[in-house]
Specification:
The chain has about 475 residues and is an all-alpha fold. The longest helix has about 50 residues.
């Protein structure tokens, strides 16, 4: 049974996730304004995004061990405090160097905040209630990329860039007060010895790949530099994987990937997260750069993704209970991939109502698929493996989100010469068409993974519908 306290705790963690995720994307709109204010180039200002994302990637794997060592309550409260204080430091930063340092501190707080809070919620949720509770936890990752362009545009238009960070202060204070009341001191088992080598290799590998993704996304950087960095850090990541699979107490337990539902959820959701992260960014650029729309109009249409996310929420639990995880994932991921491809075909001549409808449908299937993925991941996870599953899932999601944002720019860089070769035209619209097609194909790979799912996958979490046996194929 979901008690009021558990529901409120889930909403608290969701709010923290919203803050963390919003801060990874909202500043991109303000880069030109901030670069002028701090008297640096736009390329240098990209460090504030990279520093934040890399810090998240490096410290998320260790968050579970810290919670076991010091307790979930002190770690979660400290994380909110650090994130809030760092947000104030960002707003008060007089130079780029100070701002980057504050963003690193902010990323450290964010890395401790969400994974630890999510473990608290999952550990106190019965399997039969996991589907509903996960619907609370997944929405921030869907909403923040959709509203960030509009929110950032409005803030820099009617206020100043400092308010991009100052908005976190009241949210952080409210979150700290709520956490003080809701998060209890829990008896944790004695932590295993810290896998220092695993921490170092995982941090360098995952953080380095995140950095390489941002270099690839930087139009001012050579392709060779980004690809070389990706290759080097991929080798480090492979070494890290080998280490994690051989030690007895790894910082990230990869052996839980032998559980079919968890493995499928991580592979499928990682592919799908690339679409989720890139679609709002790509659409905003298309509407402004090609269609000539104002930032407010472009952000307003992208907000229909948010409307779809929220609108379908009351029905996602029913749909999964009624049709099963496999069917829901096949349909939602296939439609999601199709919407990406159709985005590549729209032109300024298409009625704005139809564009808004397409964006709305995209939001609906994004919400449905990621709720299913996030819930199914824990369907066969034992209580003792919850921390390990959460650390790995959070790391995978953060890495996929980072590559999702970067992939949007990467495919745009690649799309322009491909479109020119295919059509002979040098117009920017062709680059967007190619880019949406590429991302649609990537998203369709998630559909293929969903087809391979066992029809009974996740049935332990479903509630039987009238006239249906959960043991029957679906």
């Amino acid at each position: 049974m979901i008690t009021p306290k558990l529901r409120n705790t889930a909403l608290l963690v969701a709010g923290c996730y919203f803050m963390e995720n919003l801060d990874s994307t909202i500043v991109t709109t303000a880069v030109p304004v901030m670069s002028r204010a701090l008297d640096v180039s736009s390329a240098q200002m990209g460090l504030i995004v990279t520093a934040y994302m890399v810090t998240l990637a490096v410290f998320i794997p260790i968050s579970g061990w810290l919670a076991e060592k010091f307790g979930t309550r002190p770690v979660f409260l400290s994380a909110i405090a650090i994130f809030t204080i760092a947000s104030l430091a960002c707003a008060l930063s007089p130079t780029l160097e100070v701002l980057v340092a504050a963003r690193v501190l902010q990323g450290f707080g964010g890395a401790m905040m969400v994974p630890v809070g999510r473990v608290v919620v999952i550990k106190h949720t019965e399997k039969r209630d996991l589907l509903k509770i996960m619907s609370y936890l997944v929405w921030p990752g869907l909403i923040s990329p959709a509203i960030a362009p509009l929110a950032g545009g409005l803030i820099i238009t009617y206020a100043s860039w400092e308010y991009l960070f100052l908005i976190n202060i009241p949210l952080g204070i409210a979150g700290f007060i709520a956490a003080w009341k809701l998060i209890d001191d829990s008896a944790e088992s004695a932590p295993s010895r810290l896998d220092v080598t695993g921490v170092a290799l995982t941090g360098i590998g995952v953080g380095g790949l995140t950095y390489a993704a941002h270099v690839l996304a930087d139009s001012g950087a050579a392709w060779s530099k980004g690809l070389l960095l990706a290759a080097v850090f991929l080798i480090v990541a492979v070494i890290a994987v080998k280490h994690l699979l051989t030690v007895s107490n790894p910082i990230v337990e990869l052996r839980i990937l032998t559980i079919p539902t968890f493995r499928s959820s991580q592979l499928g959701s990682s592919l799908y997260w690339m679409m989720v992260g890139s679609a709002p960014f790509m659409l905003t650029l298309l509407f402004q750069n090609v269609f000539g729309w104002s930032p407010t109009l472009a952000g307003g249409i992208v907000l229909f993704i948010f409307v779809g996310n929220i609108g379908i929420k009351p029905a996602t639990t029913f749909l999964i209970n009624r049709f099963g995880f496999r069917r829901v994932l096949i349909v939602s991921t296939a439609i999601g991939a199709l919407t990406m491809i159709l985005n590549g075909l729209i032109t300024p001549a298409v009625p704005i109502v139809l564009i808004a409808l397409l964006t709305l449908i995209s939001g609906i299937v994004r919400s449905t698929a990621l709720t299913a993925y996030t819930t199914m991941a824990y369907s066969d996870i034992s209580p003792e493996n919850t921390r390990h599953a959460n650390a790995l899932a959070s790391t995978m999601q953060n890495l996929a989100a980072a590559f999702g944002i970067a992939s949007a720019t990467v495919v745009l860089r690649a799309g322009e010469p491909i479109a020119k070769w295919a059509t002979g035209s040098s117009g920017s619209s062709g680059a967007y068409t190619v880019s949406f097609f590429i991302l649609g194909i990537i998203a369709s790979l998630a559909t293929l993974e969903a087809v391979r799912l066992d029809p009974a996958a996740g049935n332990a979490l479903r509630r039987k519908q009238t006239g249906e046996s959960l043991n029957s194929p679906n």
